[in-house]
Amino acid sequence: MDPRVEIWNVLHDGEITAIAGEEDETLTMFVSIPYLRRRLEPLGDSFVLTLKGLKRAEFHDLDGTTTSLREELEIGSLEILSTDSKAMPVNIETTLGRLILDFETIQFAMDTGQEIEYETIAKVCEEYWTEWEAKNTR
To answer: Do residues 47 and 58 touch, judged by C-beta distance below 8 A?
Structure first.
């Protein structure tokens, strides 16, 4: 499992709220996903993804128009749905279209600045959905 790809399934339902560096080699992205983030200390509501060695970042609207991620965020919120990708580039389905990203490495942090490992985020996600399923199958 490649964390660069799988993170987009882990953060499904998360909303991309802010970005910086889309035209550079390093793209920083805030993903608001309070139901996962509030399970970690210190309190917060987002994760920060830093994509390094960025080769491609483009967005395809539902009507097929290609735009930048920044332009899309100016229009409205961008909720992550999922990816079927297994390798780079990763094609991420969102509520407004498809985001295509190609990059070399990814780092994770909490919105409060502390670095965090992919495995910790994935574990919190798995725990959340296990609890959710138990509550909803009674």
So the answer is: no
Residue with tokens 């009674």: 138
The three-state DSSP-derived secondary structure of 3-45 is HHHHHHHHCCCCEEEEEECCCCCEEEEEEECHHHHCCCCCCCC
pLDDT digit string, tens, across residues 36-52: 999 999 999 999 999 99
Q: Are strands 26-32 and 15-20 parallel, antiparallel or unpaired?
A: antiparallel
Identify the bridge partners of residue 20 per DSSP, sorted by sequence position: 28
- HEC profile of 113-131: CCECCHHHHHHHHHHHHHH
Domain ranges of the chain: 3-136
* Residue 137: DSSP 8-state: T
Angle between helices 118-136 and 3-10 (to 10 degrees): 30
Whether residue 97 contacts residue 16, with contact meaning beta carbons closer than 8 Å, is answered with no
Contact in structure between 11 and 47 (CB atoms under 8 Å):
yes
64-112 pLDDT tens trace: 899 999 999 998 889 999 999 999 999 999 999 999 999 999 999 999 9
